[in-house]
Amino acid sequence: MLALRQRDLLAQRHSRAAVDELLASVQKYIVRCAWRAWFAFGFRSLDVIQDLKQEGALGALIAVKRFNLRYDVTFLTFASPHIRDRIVKFCRRQNVQHSLDDTLRDSATTSCRY
Questions:
Q1: CATH of the domain spanning 2-106
Q2: Please, which of 4, 20, 82, 86 could form a disulfide with 63 given CB 3.0 to 4.6 Å?
Q3: Hey, where are the domains in the chain?
Q4: 62-111 tens-digit pLDDT
Q5: pTM of the shown model
Q6: CA distances from 103 to 10, 30, 106 (A)
Q7: What is the SS3 string spanning the chain?
């Protein structure tokens, strides 16, 4: 029954209410992916969780635009790679920045000792 409802919503994907309902249907998955990424990439601040959720929502919006009703899958099945991709790319960008900051800080403290 849920799949039929999602098909109806995807048929009306230009309606804001339909898009909001589709995003609400994958919200739990987005939150779970955000927390998994937060732990996996070793972020120290909880502020990053909100950014990860937003990136996941952007991935879901991309999936809404690209989904074709001829696919015989639920929306979550189609959207999950898009959601994970956006979250992981964000983590990699942030993690590179953190590792560069750590490297610069370590080199600065090393040079100050001498």
A1: 1.10.1740
A2: 82
A3: 2-106
A4: 999 898 878 788 889 999 999 999 999 999 888 756 554 555 455 444 44
A5: 0.76
A6: 47, 32, 5
A7: CHHHHHHHHHHCCCCHHHHHHHHHHCHHHHHHHHHHHHHHHCCCCCCHHHHHHHHHHHHHHHHHHHCCCCCCCCHHHHHHHHHHHHHHHHHHHHHHHHHHHHHHHHHHHHHHHC
Query: How many CB atoms are located within 10 Å of the residue 67 CB?
Result: 19
Burial classification of residue 110, based on how many CB atoms lie within 10 Å of its CB (0-12 exposed, 13-18 middle, 19 or more buried): exposed
